[in-house]
Design goal:
The chain has 180 residues and is of the alpha+beta class. It contains seven helices and five strands. A five-stranded antiparallel β-sheet has the order 1-2-3-4-5.
């Protein structure tokens, strides 16, 4: 039996899908990398109390942004931790309340942006070409978790605000997050 990618069953299942798909993306810019790898968080703060609360696990886009789990507490179920977007242009915020919510957002097949959540909006949604592995990802998401893309991504953006407010309050002790 092979060694697991991570201690998070949901990420292990996604890693199996990614390995099966080969060098294609299941969502624009998304790619799992070494669990607990480097997401550039040390450029925000070198404080171990800050760095020790993140578990990076994936690229978020093609320009250097990443996703990390935020260890907001000591819960055992890591898949229920909030997911933080570590942007290559200075963004640092909670993008999803947990991994399954992130998976639903990945089903939109858009790269994350600072404003407007994942992409420009519904007008562009139907005109863009999907990632090569997108159809397989959607089938996997439905088969594995009974989930699909959110009907209202803006509602998810609002729903994660409570987690983001808590994150901003905590992270503000270590870094300047600006007035975003």
């Amino acid at each position: 039996m092979s060694e697991a990618y991570s201690p998070v069953p949901e990420l292990n299942l996604l890693k199996e899908l990614q390995d099966r798909l080969g060098p294609v993306f299941c969502s624009k810019g998304f790619e799992l990398y070494e669990y607990g790898g480097d997401a550039g968080l040390h450029t925000w703060s070198e404080d171990p109390a800050f760095l020790g609360r993140f578990v990076p696990f994936a690229k978020a886009n093609g320009s250097g942004s990443d996703y990390a789990l935020w260890r907001c507490d000591d819960r055992v179920e890591l898949a229920t931790l909030p997911v933080v977007f570590v942007g290559d242009e200075g963004d640092l915020y909670v993008i999803a309340r947990d991994l399954r919510e992130l998976f639903r957002l990945l089903a939109l097949d858009r790269e994350p942006v600072a404003e407007g959540f994942l992409g420009a909006g519904p007008d562009e949604e139907d005109t863009e070409e999907h990632s090569q592995g997108h159809a397989e990802f959607l089938a996997w998401l439905d088969r594995t978790f009974g989930l699909g893309p959110p009907e209202d991504p803006d509602a998810l953006w609002e729903a994660r605000k409570e987690h983001d407010d808590r994150f901003r309050s905590w992270a503000g002790r270590f870094v300047d997050l600006g007035d975003r």
